[in-house]
Amino acid sequence: MSGGGGDLKKGPWSAAEDAILVEYVKKHGEGNWNAVQRNTSLMRCGKSCRLRWANHLRPNLKKGAFTPEEERIIVELHSKLGNKWARISAHLPGRTDNEVKNYWNTRVKRRLRQGLPLYPHGLPKSPNPLSSPSPPSPLSHLKPPPTSLPLFDPLSLSSPTSFFSLHPPSVLSPHRVTTENSLLGQSVSAQSLAPIDPFHLSTMCFNFESPSAIQTQIEPKGYDPCGSAFVPNSELPSNQFCQKIYKEAFDDQNFMNPYIGPSNSGLLDALLQEAHARGENKKFKRESVDFGLQWENSSSENSYVGVNKKEEQEEEMSSTNEDLSSILDLIPPLVRVPNWCNGGDEASMGQSSANNTSLDMPQLSPFPVVGSAEEDCKTGSFTWDHLPRIC
DNA sequence: AAATCTCTCAACCGCATGTAA
DNA sequence: TTTACATGCGGTTGAGAGATT
């Protein structure tokens, strides 16, 4: 199946190709993808290698159907970010942008055809749910007006279907929520809030010395709550085989997944840091009714993962307030790694150190405490330090 | 049972961006 | 400053599987 352009192969990857790529990454780390073809027998272009690694070969990818919680996150984030699949997927550990994109383009798009709205009530609507948000308009700096519609109730998420209301498709609001600016993009370690070069991190992680931690990284047990079991089968060229490759390639290696990082704990820190920096010396005002606050309501185990992005730190300061509001819309006050991330096992997602504890650091919140969570639940507003578990 | 349709997902492509020489 | 290269992202496509007729 050789394609043109230097006899580079195209099409589906074989198990042998996967093994070559995994072996290469194990030795050299990620990045410099074009060198793969030069230094191995793999006849794939760099882009193809990168894509294969990112979407199928890298450790701790989650496969299987999206959970209701993941679907909720996708829909909610899409309502804010539009087709920023990479950003959205950054909030879903183990999920790729391609998966999120496919999900949106199929399941959710189907709902439109069925006359069901893409977004639950209370969620701001992306200008065009099937395409990227429009370029920043003169109105783009405006926050969505407070909605009189019922807030999205995560508690109703007994099933993916129930997540969506049965109301006819809403008229998409003309404004665009300007939140695609500050949160996502680059992974951040728990040890440092500084952006990390993924390649450097990768290299670092490959030399990590913690066999026990490594084991938890690659141990498939309980790692996928969606039910995609670990099936070592060399005959399978796709996901299952990929996991077999991992097992073989990394099981007894000093390998640490460069992607999983600190179970996202540092990401929250980075977000809060950024938000704090942005909001410093500025009065923080929170919308009393803010759908973003619904995040933490649905379950005590819910998690929301934010990631920092260098580019977004350079947002013009004139938009600080609305940016901050947007950030806050996205960040639950207390981030906790969900069981589906940890596979029900604190160690299964394999942070190399005990840095996960940073997830339970409500004191990190730079935001004012308004009242108790219970009270806030009643009034429709919540504080960052007092999260309602379930209202 | 066969044909057709629909859906899902992996992969490719083009463009944008970042970076080093 | 320019250029070339590497990487990342989002849109699109096509094959295969399953569902429907």
Automatic annotation (TrEMBL):
<keyword id="KW-0010">Activator</keyword>
<feature type="domain" description="HTH myb-type">
    <location>
        <begin position="7"/>
        <end position="57"/>
    </location>
</feature>
<feature type="region of interest" description="Disordered">
    <location>
        <begin position="302"/>
        <end position="323"/>
    </location>
</feature>
<dbReference type="InterPro" id="IPR009057">
    <property type="entry name" value="Homeodomain-like_sf"/>
</dbReference>
<dbReference type="GO" id="GO:0045893">
    <property type="term" value="P:positive regulation of DNA-templated transcription"/>
</dbReference>
<feature type="region of interest" description="Disordered">
    <location>
        <begin position="117"/>
        <end position="145"/>
    </location>
</feature>
<dbReference type="GO" id="GO:0005634">
    <property type="term" value="C:nucleus"/>
</dbReference>
<dbReference type="GO" id="GO:0003677">
    <property type="term" value="F:DNA binding"/>
</dbReference>
<dbReference type="InterPro" id="IPR001005">
    <property type="entry name" value="SANT/Myb"/>
</dbReference>
<dbReference type="Pfam" id="PF00249">
    <property type="entry name" value="Myb_DNA-binding"/>
</dbReference>
<dbReference type="InterPro" id="IPR017930">
    <property type="entry name" value="Myb_dom"/>
</dbReference>
<keyword id="KW-0539">Nucleus</keyword>
<feature type="domain" description="HTH myb-type">
    <location>
        <begin position="58"/>
        <end position="112"/>
    </location>
</feature>
<dbReference type="GO" id="GO:0040008">
    <property type="term" value="P:regulation of growth"/>
</dbReference>
<protein>
    <submittedName>
        <fullName>Uncharacterized protein</fullName>
    </submittedName>
</protein>
<dbReference type="GO" id="GO:0048235">
    <property type="term" value="P:pollen sperm cell differentiation"/>
</dbReference>
<keyword id="KW-0677">Repeat</keyword>
<feature type="domain" description="Myb-like">
    <location>
        <begin position="5"/>
        <end position="57"/>
    </location>
</feature>
<keyword id="KW-0805">Transcription regulation</keyword>
<keyword id="KW-0804">Transcription</keyword>
<feature type="domain" description="Myb-like">
    <location>
        <begin position="58"/>
        <end position="108"/>
    </location>
</feature>
<keyword id="KW-0238">DNA-binding</keyword>
<feature type="compositionally biased region" description="Pro residues">
    <location>
        <begin position="126"/>
        <end position="145"/>
    </location>
</feature>
